[in-house]
Each structure stands twice: as C-alpha cells, then as structure tokens.
C-alpha cells in the first residue's frame, strides 16, 4: 500500500534540499556546543584548554580562532591547568594506589609498592596493607584481617575520601 | 580584591580570591566580626606543611587529623602515609588541602554573622 510520496525518505530529502548552507553550519556548531557542555558536566571541567569557549570561537570556515592576545591566553591556560591538577591529583593517587594494591600477588612477599622499603628503611608500619587489600578483593576476609587489621576499614575510608573529593570538586567554582 | 588584601595580607592565590568574593556585601561591623573569627580559626598552610614533613620521619597522618579528616588521618598514621606515597602527594597538594579546610571556616563564619 505504500506510495513513493508518503515514504519518509522522500520527505527528508526535500527538507535537506530546502535548507541553506548557513543554517546547516549553525546546526553543526550547536551540536558541538552541546557535546562539549555534556563533557564538561561529566568531567567537572571548568577551565581546561580545548573545551573552553571563552577563548575559542567558530569562524566562517568552521575552524577554531583565538580571542585575545597570545600571552594572556597561555598564562590563563597554565593557571587553569594548575587549578585542575590540584583539584584532581589526590583522588587519582588514591584510586591508583587502591588499584595497584588490588593487583598485588597476596600469597608471596615478592612484589612491593612500599617506598620505605625501596629507600632501604628496614621497618615500615604499613607492612602487609597492600596484600591485605589484594586478599579482600579475592574474597578472603579472615586472611585479609590477619595480614593487616586496617585493610577492610582502610578500603572503606579511601573510597569515602574519593567520594567526598568528587563532591567537593562539584561545589568549588574556579575563579 | 584590594579590600581583602588590606584586611587579610597573609592570604594568597585561591584563598584570597575566595575570601574577597565572600566579603563583598558585608558592612563594616560584620567585616570586623568576620575578620576576628576567620583569623582565629584559620589553619596556617605553613604549620600544615611542617606537619606533613613529620610523615617523612615516620609520624604520618597528623596533618589530616589537624584539619578534621580523622579517618584518613588514622589510616595514614598506621600505614606510614600509605607507605610514603600519600605523604608525598600531600606535600605537593598542601595548599589546596588547607584551603579545603579554610573554605568551610569561611562558610561557617558567614552563617554565624548573618
């Protein structure tokens, strides 16, 4: 029963033919802006170089152009990089340490992450903490507690700290 | 910014900008009160950094208890600052950690004034 005139393909084809080139570029630009907005919301990025629309602009050739002179631009990107780094370095360290400890081999004392041991200090109070978390990940609660009693609460404390850092970063507005 | 510098010459960077933004609408009486509260309760980043340096000797985590993060302070104390890694990152990060505490003091002080 379908006819050529009522099929969606022909309708969309006529719509495409009617639009002008200017509208098309505008639509593309808006799409890019919404994508960047969404990315910024997900990553909590406020002032980082490629996603910042205060310095960037679409010109007629659809390429990025700089607003303002070069020096202030580089200074501001450097400052915003600093702010970005100090916002995020702590939770990256904590989650990286958790991951590294989870992938240790808990049944041997061959691998070590301890910087005291690498530096040559004979005694370290954190002896067994990494292997304790590795045992916890493998589901052996009792052995984990025997290895280091702070393994289970320590994991919870670190996870809570990561959560609170992410909360803090949402509430801080960078200058 | 200039007014904040006049009242709080010891601040700099992010903290100065935050304080100058938050004292914008205050009257003179309120500003005096805010100044006395904030100077009494603020934690100096230099003292904070000296506490972090204790972690290199083996007494880690005192600085975290000092700024009210007791759980992670105890964890650092009994694991030597996550085997020195956490201490080094805190040493890099000391200013933003002390600002994280001082920011709550600013908010508390403003709430008590109004």
Description of the structure:
Chain A is mainly alpha-helical. Helix content of chain A is 62%, strand content 3%. Chain A has a two-stranded antiparallel sheet with strand order 1-2. The longest helix of chain A has 33 residues, at 70-102. Chain A starts with 7 loop residues before the first helix and ends with a helix. Chain B has 114 residues and is an all-alpha fold. Chain B has one domain (2-113). Chain B is 78% helix and 0% strand. Chain B has nine helices and no strands. Chain B has helices at residues 2-7, 13-22, 28-41, 45-57, 62-66, 70-78, 80-83, 85-92, 94-113. In chain B, helix 3 crosses helix 9 (94-113) and helix 4 (45-57) runs antiparallel to helix 8.
Quick summary:
The complex is a heterodimer of chains A (175) and B (114). Chain A is mainly α.
Mean pLDDT across the residues of chain A is 72
Helix count of chain A?
Answer: 7
- What is the SS-derived class of chain B? mainly alpha
Distance between the termini of chain B: 22 Å
Judging from the principal axes of the Cα atoms, what is the shape of chain A? elongated
Rg from Cα of chain A? 27 Å
Biggest sheet of chain B, open or closed, and with what strands and sense? none
Q: How many structural domains in the coordinates of chain B?
A: 1
Shape of chain B: elongated
What percent strand of chain B?
under 5%
Biggest interface pair, counts: A-B, 30 and 27 residues
Total DSSP E strands of chain B: 0
